[in-house]
Amino acid sequence: MAVSVLQVVGFALGIILPTFFWFWFFWRRDPKPEPIRLLLRTFLYGAFAFLPAALFELSLQTALKGMTLYIFIAVIEEVFKFFAARTVIKERDFDEFIDGLIYSMTAALGFALMENIFYGVSFGLEVLLVRGLITMSSHVLFTAPWGFALGYQRMNNKNKYAVPLGLGAGIVLHSIFNGIQIQSHPTWGVILLVVALVSIMFYVADRLYTTASKEP
After folding, report:
1. Separation in Å, CA 73 to CA 3, 30, 57, 60, 70
2. Contact, 49 vs 110, CB < 8 A?
3. CB contact at 8 A, 152 and 162
4. Which end of the chain is more exposed for a tag (fewer CB within 10 A), N or C?
């Protein structure tokens, strides 16, 4: 099937615009913006992290089904995003509490961008609206607990359990989100559950960003 220029432009805008929007939405909370080189590097690491994560997920689909599969997918994706963000932990510019949230958000958007490209190519432009508005922002929100924990540990060097607990919280949120979406034909009840979960995550992330931005 021939692909029109309009389809290509629509596909590009459907992927790129949500990425820039969500980056701006969360990045504006940082009182001291991070160097572009570190943000770009973290974004690219997050994007590259999608590839091994996707391969792991494909291999699991033959062995696992249902909620078990969705939990393992949540574990794989959060762990790969975590390691992409953690590459900046010893950088001199990682000098604020909120930086953990900023870099975790950046890695998550890189990951989500690649995931959206995959879904857009596989299922068409129709999926990009929902994924751009809901799924992409959710990827960022899943990282908020462990991004906050990374900043806390980096600045305070206390509580060695903070990061594992934060990562665990992100995995739980991701698993619940995946579980709600198991429905092949979502009802209004399922849609309301997704909206409610995303709203709660936005509220929690807002509190974490506000708290971190006030800390030195």
Report:
1. 32, 30, 6, 9, 5
2. yes
3. yes
4. N
